[in-house]
Amino acid sequence: MDLFSRSWTALLTAVAELPDEYFELPSGCTGWLVRDLVCHLVIDAQDVLITLVTPADTEPTVDAVTYWRLVEPPTGEDPLDALIPRLAAAYGEPRLLKFHLDDVGSAAGRAARLADPAARVGTRGEVLTTGDYLSAYVVEWTLHHLDLTAHLPSAVEPPAETLAAVRASLERIAGTAFPASFSDRDALLIGTGRRTPTGAEKAEWGAVAAQLPFILG
What we know:
The protein is mainly alpha-helical. It has 8 helices and 4 strands, in the order ααβααββααααβ. Strands 1-4 form a two-stranded antiparallel sheet. It has a two-stranded antiparallel sheet with strand order 2-3. The longest helix has 21 residues, at 94-114. It is globular.
């Protein structure tokens, strides 16, 4: 739960510090501008709030790792994905989008700190403990922090400890270790298809290269 707070606080801070003109630049999410990604984070924060007040009384069906599944790369046909840019554009000014994310995001952060990690919650048709749910979301926050800063070299990167934790999670989800020669950041970017590896890098990944990218859903 500590990593949840660290990763979420770092992401909210990074968004708050972005100059307005950065919102019209591309993000690391294919087809989305930075403003679209920030709008998606608003929806993510709402999902956290909804899940934390959706108790379940049955045994957990997933944990922090099995919550995520490997899926096919997005086709761009998902209705919600198509809706995000329209919602983001409707804000008009970056300050309004920043305000909404800070408002809802701060509430999600407070709710996470107050939650009982042993309590069970339901989401996506699954049941898991609150602690596992919040741990799973460290993956979401950290990858989207990388998306936010993909084309913004001056922006602050995700905390080192969350990068390391997410790398370990992705390796468990994928069922394979990533080359030790790659930094956590590069391992995540290549592993999730956010960066195309060079020929030499593919050689370092060995047989794992044929399985790239590992897309989570």
